[in-house]
Design a protein that fits this description.
Structural class: alpha/beta
Number of helices: 18
Largest sheet: 8 strands, mixed
CATH topology of the largest domain: Rossmann fold
Strand order of the largest sheet: 2-1-3-4-6-5-9-12
CATH class of the largest domain: Alpha Beta
């Protein structure tokens, strides 16, 4: 059931893209010594954002002139109708680049960003407020950074783009890639605390491919920089859906990350309701009446002291369950997401492996109740080393309130009756190392996992041998009954259910194989003795003999 791997042309393209982003990273490094490395992303991404929307503005302006509409180049409506931000002169990149070496360049950048936000509703609360002025950046280093960014064409044309470059801009997603690259690198360099908001792209891709957010309301209660939303929209577009069929809701507690999310979504033309302000989801839920069709999230792992002993004890989100303990927020997140699910909704989220088996301070009782309520659709054990920010082993939970047979309105999905069943997938042996310490799930890995889940749910999936339908595979996947889970003390660890992989029999008798292996060993031992003798002779010749 694996999908076709990327061709050589695509691989070459990816290599080219990587060098582009690495160039940007080297440019950002010019700030070293002038500003804390944790501030790089806010400085660089703000400038990249300004360059991008300026290039889009100039592109649209030139298009209007070419079409004989030169009299309207200062009318805001002609830009907004083309999904382009209108920029007054003092907010344009060429104005900033022209004054890059002046002592007040930081003030000019702040003024430009403030003006853009004031004139464009969708950017309210997204851009830094007097940020550059407060940093007291070295003017020469800031000028060098501006010069570096000035040489980047954010609207790189690709094969098939029209004369205006509009297709290229949306397809290439230059700025989107820059955001992903920088956020990933900062997650890798800043450590656990600095990268809490970043989820590896392959994990986000897997979540989107699993839950299939074609239409309806998508929600992330701890949305970070908005990566889950971006990938959900990409999923819709890649599967010939219409992104107008989905609406996005999210919340983020950290102010700077909240701004990053709003900027990240704005540059991609994605509308989202992230609440009026950054806020704690548990204490200031900004979507209290929301019932989401899809929930996709990566909550902070094992968050301690998330509430006081006397706080949120009677919260309606825990109705029917014990109150989650103060020492770990994992089950607080789970129950919050359950409370937000629509009657036919599905939630897919990342948690630490301990969540599958813990019985600490009532967590086991909460999990038992969730299982008895038949909400657990699928559990996946992920390989280690996927995350830059933690080495804690992680898993994916998939919950749904409706396991009954369903045919969805768009006709693309048909689910069989799965009441009393849960799918377990052990993917710990999947993934490929991308460097000495980090692993990624490949496109084929993601396809194999997602296709297994879809086949189990009853969706038509064609396997490599032409057969349709789900089958248990020892060591990889198992469809378990509620009774199976109960007999395993309500533990949801996939390894308990999938068993051991079958070892392929090569048809060779043990005695014959052992004889061959023994002969090979004796031969190698003899060769080692000969080599030792040669080494001793050479050392003797050099005057280092016995």
């Amino acid at each position: 059931m694996a999908r076709k791997p990327a061709d050589k042309k695509e691989t070459a393209k990816n290599k080219k893209e990587k060098s582009f982003e690495q160039t940007l990273w080297a440019t950002a490094d010019k700030l070293r010594g002038s500003v804390e490395s944790s501030e790089y992303k806010h400085v660089v991404l703000s400038l990249i954002f300004l360059k991008f929307i300026s290039d889009k503005f100039e592109q649209r302006k030139q298009q209007m002139i070419d079409e004989g509409q030169g009299d309207y180049v200062d009318m805001v409506e002609f830009y907004t109708m083309a999904n382009t931000f209108y920029l007054p002169e003092e907010s344009r990149w060429d104005f900033i680049a022209k004054h890059a070496k002046q002592d007040d360049i930081a003030v000019k950048i702040d003024t430009a960003l403030h003006t853009i936000e004031k004139n464009n509703k969708s950017l309210r609360g997204a851009l830094p407020d007097n940020y550059f002025s407060r940093l007291n950046l070295d003017v020469s280093k800031l000028a060098a950074l501006i010069d570096g960014i000035n040489n980047i064409d954010t609207l790189v044309k690709e094969e098939g783009a029209d004369s205006s470059g509009q297709k290229a801009a949306s397809t290439e997603d230059i700025v989107g890639r820059v955001y992903e690259y920088f956020l990933g690198n900062f997650a890798a360099t800043e450590g656990k605390g600095g990268g809490e908001f970043y989820t590896p792209k392959c994990v986000v891709n897997l979540l989107a491919e699993m839950i299939e957010p074609y239409y309806g309301k998508i929600y992330d209660p701890c949305c970070g920089s908005g990566g889950m939303f971006v990938q959900s929209v990409k999923f819709v577009e890649n599967h010939k859906g219409n992104k107008k069929d989905i609406s996005i809701y999210g919340q983020e507690q950290t102010s700077t990350t909240y701004k990053l999310a709003k900027m990240n979504l704005a540059i991609r033309g994605i509308s989202a309701n992230l609440g009026d302000v950054p806020a704690d989801t548990f204490f200031k839920d900004q979507h209290p009446d929301l019932k989401a069709d899809f929930i996709i999230a990566n909550p902070p792992f094992n968050l301690k002291e998330w509430r006081g002993p006397d706080e949120l004890t009677d919260d309606p989100r825990w109705a029917g369950y014990e109150t989650p303990p103060t020492g770990n927020a994992n089950y607080g997140w789970i129950l919050h997401m359950i409370s937000k699910l629509s009657d036919n909704g599905v939630a897919g989220f990342v948690l630490a492996n301990g969540s599958m088996s813990t019985s600490t301070k009532g967590e086991g009782e909460i999990r038992k109740q969730i299982i008895d309520n038949d909400l657990v659709d699928c559990m996946i054990a992920l390989p280690g080393q996927l995350f830059y920010t933690t080495q804690i082993p992680v898993c994916l939970w998939f919950l749904t309130k409706n396991k009954k047979a369903q045919t969805f309105s768009d006709g693309r999905q048909q689910h069989r009756n799965r009441e009393g069943e849960t799918l377990f997938i052990d993917a710990r042996n999947m993934g490929s190392m991308v460097d000495r310490t980090h692993k990624e799930l490949t496109a084929d890995d993601i396809a194999a996992i997602a296709d297994t889940y879809h086949a189990w749910r009853g969706e038509p999936v064609l396997s490599d041998d032409g057969e349709e339908g789900y089958q248990d595979v020892a060591g990889f996947c198992k469809s378990a009954s509620l009774a199976d889970i109960q007999s395993n003390d309500y533990v949801l660890t996939p390894g308990r259910y999938v068993g051991a992989a079958e070892i392929e029999d090569d048809g060779e008798l043990f005695e014959e194989k052992m004889r061959e292996l023994t002969q090979t060993l004796f031969q190698q031992m003899a060769e080692a003795q000969e080599l030792d003798a040669v080494i001793k002779q050479n050392l003797k010749g050099l005057g280092y003999g016995e």
